[in-house]
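Researcher: Quick test of sequence recovery. Tokens follow.
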């Protein structure tokens, strides 16, 4: 079975955008590695050596990751996720899976409050989470036909970054818009068929990974 970070990388290639923050790259890389040396962990990320070791220290201070002396090399250390961080990630994924299932069952709808989705998409109190582009795509995956104002209220980036990200996604053909029939001055946003197919594939693989570990 593919690792979680490998699944996410494949999804990024299909979408053409980064999905994980630099913090979350490290966290995702550790989901399938109980303990790993920093040299091996660095190779699983896109970070420079300097940025990587800076993030590693930040994550250890925050309690997201823990380290111990490498028993095979007393001068080195091994890193892994803290129990709390691992539990948080698994709970987020299980909760998000329930949201997708409710959407597929027709339970979700246009009247559903976007704030219901926030605890599964926005950043945690411990680490930065998903990129602004990926947050937008996930909200539109869960509920089509949202105004940019409503999306901007829940995407966890600055308003300037939000508009830049939305414009980028439209320009890439991942998001499309239509005039709001109830207000001709406003636009409603939707995923393109290509983005929808890429996210369907990504979701299937992530949930397969989750089922393999929890039976969910």
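Model:
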């Amino acid at each position: 079975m593919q690792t979680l970070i490998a699944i996410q990388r494949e999804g990024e290639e299909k979408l053409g955008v980064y999905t994980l923050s630099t913090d979350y790259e490290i966290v995702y890389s550790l989901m399938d590695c109980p303990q790993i040396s920093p040299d091996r962990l660095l190779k699983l990320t896109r970070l420079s050596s300097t940025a990587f070791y800076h993030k590693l220290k930040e994550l250890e201070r925050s309690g997201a990751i823990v380290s111990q002396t490498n028993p095979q090399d007393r001068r080195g250390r091994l890193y892994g996720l803290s129990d709390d961080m691992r539990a948080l990630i698994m709970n987020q994924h299980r909760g998000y899976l329930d949201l997708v299932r409710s959407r597929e069952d027709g339970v979700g709808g246009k009247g559903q409050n976007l704030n219901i989705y926030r605890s599964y998409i926005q950043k945690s109190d411990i680490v930065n989470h998903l990129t602004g582009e990926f947050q937008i795509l996930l909200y539109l995956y869960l509920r089509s036909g949202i105004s940019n104002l409503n999306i901007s209220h829940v995407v966890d980036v600055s308003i300037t970054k939000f508009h830049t990200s939305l414009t980028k996604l439209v320009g890439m053909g991942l998001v499309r818009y239509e005039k709001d029939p109830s207000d001709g001055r406003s636009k409603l946003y939707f995923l393109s068929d290509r983005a929808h197919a890429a996210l369907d594939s990504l979701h299937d693989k992530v949930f397969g990974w989750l089922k393999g570990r929890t039976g969910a």
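The radius of gyration is 18 Å.
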